[in-house]
Design a protein that fits this description.
Elements: H1 11-17, H2 22-31, E1 38-39, E2 43-44, E3 52-63, H3 80-85, E4 92-96, E5 104-106, H4 108-116, E6 121-124, E7 127-128, H5 131-137, E8 141-143, E9 155-160, E10 164-166, E11 169-171, E12 176-180, E13 183-187, H6 192-214, H7 227-242
Parallel strand pairs: 3-4, 4-6, 5-7, 6-8
Antiparallel strand pairs: 1-13, 2-8, 3-9, 3-12, 10-11, 12-13
Helix pairs in contact: 2-6, 4-5
């Protein structure tokens, strides 16, 4: 199951993307023709979680089948336990639970082990159990909520580091995930450099627009900016760069 994909993400990339909202990323990807990049059902488990960035380490569940989805399967070589031991530090675990919300993919012990291994975050369209214990592990989590039953009550774990569908989005191992208060967003690995080039400028522009709104400016011609406002923005940015 171990993938040869390089899961390392340059700290400079993390530093840049940690300053870029998921809203901005979705807008830029929309301009690139990608509409389906927001992972549905991925809500922060606690308020105040920082914006986090990492390469996707994927896990996949399928519907429960009675001969496979048993407590004994937790000791199988193909299990969530084995997958966790394969997770590199700095990754974001992205779990395809098919949106099932009445069987929990992980609980506090598994999340504690992920935290100990240096996993950046857990993102899933499914749910967790032992929520108080999960919160105590300090592992940042984005998911669809909580449920008491274990995974085998409704799911069968089948693989890791394979392409998955999480929240209706195709996620490949090594894609980049950014998660904040608005949920989790996928950046295809092949588009990472373009996003890094475009996103900071988009954030600067929108910050400038917000300042104009705070000073009473009307939106038509400002958001999006017409040629006059673009010229004003560029002139102010040029001055700020020389200061």
């Amino acid at each position: 199951m171990t993938s040869p994909i390089d899961m390392h993400l340059d700290p400079k990339v993390v530093a840049i993307l940690s300053q870029i909202t998921t809203a901005t990323i979705t807008t830029i990807l929309l301009k690139k023709g990608l509409r389906n990049v927001w992972l549905r059902g991925t809500r922060p488990i606690r308020t105040g979680q920082p914006r986090l960035v990492g390469r996707a380490f994927t896990l996949r569940f399928v519907p429960a089948r009675e001969d496979l989805a048993t407590p004994a399967s937790w000791g199988s070589p193909i299990s969530t336990r084995a997958a966790i031991e394969d997770m590199p530090a700095g990754c974001i675990a992205v779990v395809d639970a098919m949106g099932i919300t009445d069987a929990a993919i992980f609980g506090d012990i598994l999340c504690a082990r992920m935290a100990k291994r240096g996993v950046t975050a857990l993102v899933s369209d499914g749910v967790l159990r032992d929520v108080a214990g999960v919160l105590a592990t300090q592992l940042p989590v984005w998911c669809s909520g909580a449920a008491a039953p274990p995974s085998v009550a409704g799911l069968t774990f089948v693989a890791w580091q394979q392409p998955i569908a999480c929240g209706g989005v195709a996620v490949f191992p090594g894609d980049v995930v950014v998660a904040d208060d608005d949920g989790a967003v996928l950046i295809p690995a092949a588009l990472l450099d373009e996003i890094l080039a475009l996103a900071p400028e988009q954030e600067r522009l929108e910050s400038w627009i917000m300042r104009q709104v705070e000073h009473g400016a009307a939106l038509p011609g400002l958001y999006p900016p017409n040629s006059e406002n673009k010229a004003r923005y560029e002139a102010e940015m040029a001055v700020s760069r020389t200061c």
